[in-house]
Fold:
Amino acid sequence: MSSSFAEVRARVVELLIVSAERLNVSPIVKYSALSLFADRLCRSLSDPARGSGADIDHWLLRPLTESSLQLFALISLWISCKMDNSRPLSVKRLKSLGDNMIKDQHFTTRDYIEAVSGFEIGVLNTLFAHLENLYLQFIGIAKMGEMVKFEACTSIMDLLYEKEIKPMRHSDPRILAASILAIPKQMCEFPLLPWVTFRGCFNEDDVLKLVGDILKLVLCPSNMKPF
Structure:
């Protein structure tokens, strides 16, 4: 690839997000796909010591190109849709989307089917799942929960996946979810911090550090670079 892996990854993550919007999938499908692609496949490709190693050997990733990563981004959506029984996605529809979104290479139906082999499917331990669980718990016990907009939380998640800043790569999804929920509505106001740290048995300083990193991304996205 002529571009750096981080640059290509960012473009492919954007393609995945746009594809999810075009397919009108549920948030759990979208973020399960992002977790499968960005947290698992891309991490194993950029840092084999942290990945499972299985995905690197797939013949469709040799040579590694932006088009092949785009294929696996769409496969991540397909797998996530299959796990969500309410919105199955046919191979025909997926390939039609791929023909429209992937410009530099044509993949056959057989390619889409074979791309699934060797792809780990365990996506229950996702950032979205932990964030949604914390959010539902909070609105169930506190009136202030009505002030927290879940759409704002998912917008922050989109930024984290697109930029792949250090907290996104190295943090436990549970503490990252707690940090997103603890983002203050006003400066110097952390109404959820004591609750999320107690609920998750986290160190308050660790959550504060992540909150600070996330706020830098939200307030000054152009100054944040991938690590």
In short: The CA atoms of residues 1 and 20 lie 25 Å apart. The radius of gyration is 18 Å.
